[in-house]
Amino acid sequence: MDSFKKMSKIVFLVLIFQGIFGFIFYISLKNNKTNIYKPILPITINKMKSNRSALTILVWTWPFDIHLPLMKCSRFLRDSSCIFTDDRNLYSSADAVILHHREVYKSKHLLPQLPRPSEQYWIWFNMESPQNSPNLQLMDNLINLTMTYKVDSDIFTPYGFLKQRTETDPFTVPIKTKLVAWVISNWKANNYRIQYYNELKKYINIDLYGKYHTELPSGKHNKIISMYKFYMAFENSVHQDYITEKLWNNAFMSMAVPIVMGPPRSNYERFIPSNSFIHVNDFSTPKELADYLYKLDQDDNKYQQYFKWRSKYQPIVNTDFFKLYCNVCKALKNAPARRFITSISDWYK
Ligand SMILES: *[C@@H]1O[C@H](CO)[C@@H](O)[C@H](O)[C@H]1NC(C)=O
Ligand SMILES: *[C@@H]1O[C@H](CO)[C@@H](O)[C@H](O)[C@H]1NC(C)=O
What average pLDDT does range 14-27 have in this prediction? Predict the structure, then answer.
């Protein structure tokens, strides 16, 4: 009798515990499902190194031959401990050298030729997709830090990011008088996005802007796009994390709801809330997408849902190379003590 009582007590306790844990498990499953958005901010650098003082950063080439006013970095950063220079005579004493892929990829002879100081970092900077970055193998076994749009870069430089919005800074959705816009200059008829467009335009009217279409007057870009409900933010090639100014500037800054084509939806959702965009993969055919756009056009309540996230976050365009370069100063102070990347080509593709 006694042991029976003991047994039933144990069984009772086990049942209670199971109940409690089951409930906790259920709650955690439920929470996982809601998938709460958290923004990823740029310039994160992993693994700290002890602080270094006055650093000389050599800009090996000016990206696209645009000379950046880097003397102003100390003011921008409120930190005067980095000296930026483009004087190659300072190579041997430089703490870091920034190599922008586009100006050096053609030949090893375009890279520094003098013996390399063992403490010096070579930073590889590139914002182009792997498809548009030729001769990546040239960089194998040379680079210490990466600086790209890929989220696992040492110095993460996305095309844009979301910042927490302050309450004193409200937003209004502009009045929409038009439906779908697309700015496209790189027109290649066999590209998948053009083929998709050719199909989509059979079902919905799309206004084209850019080189072979209606030219946008300079400075009026965002203003004109902002009259549209939707903007086609179609990337020219599909790569992990490759989400460019087509989304950040053309769509988000113009307050047009982006219709995206690029990496899968889950990749976009690492950077932006799930209800901030429409993904072409959400539809099995372009016609289905067109039907959905018409539906949103008819139902303003539903359309406005695509702006809800804006009460909490604000998009910031990050394509100003001046700021990206200045931030190398911050990043270097926290750079890992010693490292190099065996194969840039494997990592990037
Ligand atoms: C970093 O710098 C600060 C101020 O110069 C100094 O107080 C601190 O000890 C330094 N830390 C290391 C790990 O060198
Ligand atoms: C940078 O990379 C080079 C070549 O891969 C290597 O020899 C050097 O030790 C690295 N330097 C640092 C500071 O990590």
Answer: 54
